[in-house]
Amino acid sequence: MAQSSVIVWMIVLAFISAEVSAFAKLIDRPLGEKVGITLNKIPESLHDSEAKTVANELSETQVISVNDELAIVSQLLDRVPLIDGHNDLPHVIRLLAESRLANFNLTDLSDKTPWSSDPTSHTDIVRLRKGKVGAQFWVAYTNCKTQHNDSPQKALEQIDLIYRFIDLYSDTFQLATTAQEIEDVFGTGKIASLIGVEGGHAMGNSLSILRIFYRLGVRYMTLTHSCPTPWADNSQLDNPGQRPIHGGLSGFGEVVVQEMNRLGMMVDISHVSVATMEDVLNVSKAPVIFSHSGAFSVCNHTRNVPDHILRRLANNGGIIMVAFYNEFLSCGKSANIKDVIRQIEHIRNLIGADHIGLGGDFNGVDRVPTDLDDVSKYPNIFVELLRLGWSETDLEKLVGTNMLRVMRRVEEVKQELAFTEPIEEWIPIEDLRPEHKLCLTDYV
């Protein structure tokens, strides 16, 4: 009897050991690997036909789950406009088509030369519709080599181009300049189209040109690009071996921010140095934005935003719109959608879901993450976040309600400053270097 008991216990212990060993292999998997359906393992004792039946049933269950997630995301994007903060399509049209809209059809560029092979071509109407984009900030970008030369002219040409393709494809696009207009245009089924100017050099150190930009519909200006202006330091000056020029904003730079507040134009501090970020947050009465940046703690690129600035951004009521450029996501040439999720999750964990948006930088970069290779892939982000347990309310914030809130507050600050006269200061001549003055005249 005793011998039989020992044999029974040996069998039980062997069974438990095998199960524990299998579980250990399961939990030792990398965090990024999906476990999901493998928990429902098909018993080895089933005949082949029975095993196939069970496998098919499990596969159908998984597909239904994925379809449910996509359905939830689709319904969400039907009721809340997906607002992207930064798309450089106008610049690519300038480069590849010389700004001539008759040379191509924006409806579908996926198989058109040279668009289909160009690594910076991510946008057309078919893909925007598939991605369920509800509102897009189109960027009027001018290269830094235009600074102190013809940058205001180039910026105006880009604004004109945006107007022209909105008019040409008026069945798809409609200009919007306020939060309410975004919602109204979205309600008609069209894509609300807004304008941002990238690079403060586009205003040519003139508040008059800044005011003209606003009258033309520009609703944000990025204070710098890859070059500093005579009144603001850019992010490259934070690289090792570089030295700041102004230590942030100059006195005239502070005036630029104040005039943008008065106008109701959002201050975009992507591309600026950390000291400039600090100064803008000290000066601005309205929420500020990062139209296309990332979190420095996740990837220590100088184009990304340190945690202490993110905390100040939350106190300011502003928003950081996560860019999809691989170097900002993973600090390398390759990245995937998990790197985008990691950025979003870090920001949410640090400052909450009220201060995050999306600013893909499509058409402005040549390397984007796998599973986010063009504007049609936005829903993939929300499906991934849904799987991580994000509520629909927090997803709505990321999709667009955060940006709508920021715009409404900027508009309120404009109303609060309605009786403030336009600022009539000129940039001090001593702020301009000799090479800055080459294209200036003495005309008064």
TrEMBL record:
Catalytic activity from the UniProt record: an L-aminoacyl-L-amino acid + H2O = 2 an L-alpha-amino acid
Subcellular location: Membrane
Listed SUPFAM superfamilies: Metallo-dependent hydrolases
Heme keyword on record: no
The keyword Signal is assigned to this record: yes
EC number(s) reported in the record: 3.4.13.19
Topology of the protein relative to the lipid bilayer: Lipid-anchor; GPI-anchor
One Pfam family per UniProt: Peptidase_M19
Keywords from the named record: Dipeptidase, Disulfide bond, Glycoprotein, GPI-anchor, Hydrolase, Lipoprotein, Membrane, Metal-binding, Metalloprotease, Protease, Signal, Zinc
UniProt cofactor(s): Zn(2+)
Transmembrane segments: none
Secretion signal, residue range per the UniProt entry: 1-22
Quaternary context: Homodimer; disulfide-linked.
Family statement: Belongs to the metallo-dependent hydrolases superfamily. Peptidase M19 family.
Name the record gives this protein: Dipeptidase
Source organism: Daphnia magna
